[in-house]
Each structure stands twice: as structure tokens, then as C-alpha cells.
Specification:
Elements: H1 22-31, E1 46-47, H2 59-65, H3 76-89, E2 93-97, H4 100-111, E3 117-120, H5 125-132, E4 137-140, H6 161-170, E5 178-181, H7 194-206, E6 211-214, H8 218-228, H9 237-246, E7 250-254, E8 265-269, H10 272-285, H11 296-308, H12 312-332, E9 344-348, H13 349-352, H14 362-374, E10 376-377, E11 379-381, E12 402-406, H15 414-429, E13 438-442, E14 453-456
Parallel strand pairs: 1-10, 3-4, 5-6, 6-7
Antiparallel strand pairs: 2-8, 7-8, 9-12, 11-12, 13-14
The protein binds ligand F0G.
Amino acid sequence: MELPFAESWRIKMVEPIRMSTQQEREQWIREAHYNVFQLKAEQVYIDLLTDSGTGAMSDRQWAAMMMGDESYAGARSYYNMRDTIERITGFPIVIPTHQGRAAENVLFSALVHEGDVVPGNSHFDTTKGHIESRKAAAVDCTIAEARDTQLEHPFKGNVDVARLEEVIQANAGRIPFIIVTITNNTAGGQPVSMENLRQVREVADRYGLRVLFDSARFAENAYFIKTREEGYADRTIKEIVREMFSLADGMTMSAKKDAIVNMGGFIATRHEDWAEGARRYSVPFEGYLTYGGMNGRDMEALAVGLDENTEFDNLNTRIHQVQYLASKLDEYGIPYQRPAGGHAIFVDASLILSKVPKEEFPAQTLTVELYREAGIRGCEIGYILADRDPVTRENRFNGLDLLRLAIPRRTYTDNHMDVIAAALKNIYDRRESITHGFRITWEAPLMRHFTVKLEPAD
Ligand code: F0G
């Protein structure tokens, strides 16, 4: 008999969690104005709000924390982290920041100016925010296949290179860099192929442009290249990662994802002029150049986390779990962005709650239903997150309306995945009876989804 698949780690420490009653959840979600960001974490049984900063560190990471050098300047921990990042990515210059969006803030302060255009595949919200707040435009050139959740494509995160070239030609002289997000979070944690990264590089070189990787989940991207792209099956993750970054000029990193730390980030590059620009903003925004908002101990844990998570076994365990959840949803016929991505399942709410009008936010409705059903907290990646058009102030209903179930790294077991799938099945079975969603009673002018207040629309 062939042995079944099992995790490449065992558990040394546990944290109790508690299932609440339906009655408790009804009250809590009402008090939270039907916005799961407003719940207390203790009111949640299985927390799939994000995979960011929610992973379980290894014994080696915890051990490394004891070795943190908390010197203000020139700490040994900084140099350990810098050396590891250079070994893994090939970038010799490393500027720490407290998280990914801070890396964007620091680097974009130097590079992005009013009237600029930054093309790429789907920009993450904070990336887009840091471009738009500088009165520049983020132009999404993701391949059209990403918009059809039921279409199978191995690299749905890819850049449409023809469209990229059109945008470059139409905006000559106004492009500070091209940005490629690996994996493409917004499109469903979908990977970008090495071939596509190479094509982007080729276009950039032809127009004399630079390429920045938003690298939050670069290791998961490398895993998909190894397992899906021809010619990479026998290459190690670390070899693939080096090849990926050889095609970029620099990276911004949210270390809360693929470096498996609770907080941290950095900018890395091979260009002194980018580094010089970033250093100007790093000191006033983040802190001195060898800590940039991070503790010495956190830089130690980051270095170990990066090293561990660029090994196949660790990534294989992780992606297997996401695919396991996907296989349960397949069994129940529940539609999601296909194939399953690296860090999350994106359930297609528009195909499930088809009776809920889009003005009443189907994906948000599904998010609330899942919480009511089993205390599971997912996250709407849909019409509420899309905000209003900055000019017309109309809701933007032109994108996908999804419920994201982000799976923290090394945190939950496959039994939890079974509970998630069963809860979704229960909702799926009664989907025809759900005919109303929510209306907004209060919203912030920008990034409303964190604080929006809602009430039932019926
Ligand atoms: N880039 C990508 C692709 C991200 O997914 C995120 C964060 C960031 C940048 C910003 O990094 O949070 O460290 O400041 N994504 C989280 C998520 C919040 O839930 O997807 P950060």
C-alpha cells in the first residue's frame, strides 16, 4: 500500500481555541456591524482572515530569537539577515522595514511621483494605495484568464505582456518601474511562471525600464514553478528562487507571509541609486538603516524562516493543505478560483449567492454566513474592498466578488479544513433561501473594508 501524505513537521506547542454557540455569534456579528474585522479574535473559532503574520514559527526560529542583537546600529542580527537574504535572492543591498507596506512607502517615496504610471499584474491594495496616494496610476495588466474563476490555467497570475507593452508605449517617460506580484494575491494567490517573468524582463530591457517584485509569497510562487512549469521539476526551490530574482531589479517583501514571522519586511536591490533613494525615507519613517522598525530578535527569526520556507518539504506541506481544502470543495461542488492558489481559497460568491443583488454585496453576505455557521472568519475580496470610483464615487462592481479563506502557515490541521468545507457545504445547500445581503450605514473614504458598518438589507 502506498503511504499517505503527511506533514513535514510535528507539533511542540499548542494554543487552545473554542467553538462558540450560534446565539453568541449572532450577537457578536451584530455588535461588529456585520464586519468581521470588527470581531474580537476570541470570538473566532478558525481564523482565515489572513495568512499574514499568523503562521507558526519553528523551534529553530524561536531559538534564533534568543540570539537577537538589539544594538541600535550595526547589530549582528541585521548582518545575519542581510547575508541570508543575499544568499537566497542574490540582492546585496537590504533595507529592513517593519512590514511590507512600509517597504512600499519607503521605496515609492523615492521612486513614484505625480502623474506616473506603474503597470504590473494585480497590485495588492496597499501597493495600489501607495501609488494612488502619490497621484500616480496602478495599471493592472493581469492576463484575462484570471477573471474567469472556473477556467483552469497553471499560471493565472501572469502579466499580459502585450497589454504591458501598450501601457508602456502610451505612457513613455512616466513609468518609474514595472511591478510583478508573486504570487498574485488579488487574482487568488495565483502564480507567475518563469517564462512570464522572463518576458516581462525582456520588455523592460527593450524600453530601458526596471522591474520590482512584490515578493510576499515568492517561495510559494517558486513551488508552483517547480511543480507546474516544464523544465523545473528537478531544480531545488532555492535554485528557482535565485533564477526568479535574477530577472528583477529589486524586491519589496512582507516577511509576514513567506518568511513566517509575525511582523517584518524589507527592501532588497542590486542598484545603489534605488537604495540611496530608499535610505532617505527609511531613517525618518522606519528607523535607522540596520533595523528599520524591526527588533534584532525578529531579524534573526526572519532569516531562519526564509531559509526554512525555501525548502521543498515545508512548501509541499503547506500547499498540500490548501489543495486538500480545495478537493473537499470540489466534492461538494462549491465554486472557487481554479486551480487552488498558494495561500488561500477564493470562493466565488457570485456563483453561490446568485439571488443576492450585487448592490447588497454577495461576498460580504457569504463571509457573514460562514461566521454565523461555524465561527470561521474569512475575508471579503469583492465589491466592498473594491471601494468607490475616486471620480464618480459609484461602487465598483466590475471585478470579482470573492470570499477569501486564507490559510495560515503551519497553524491548523486538515481536521480544521474539514470543518471549513462542511460549514460551506451547509450554506451552499441552503443558498437559494439567501436572497438579501447588506447595506452600508457608514464607510471611510478610502480602504473602507476595515471599518465599514453594515446592516441587513431585508
Ligand atoms: N503585497 C502583497 C502581495 C500582500 O499580500 C501584502 C499583504 C502586502 C504587500 C503588504 O504587506 O501586510 O506586511 O504590510 N497582504 C496581507 C493579506 C495583509 O492579508 O493579504 P504587509
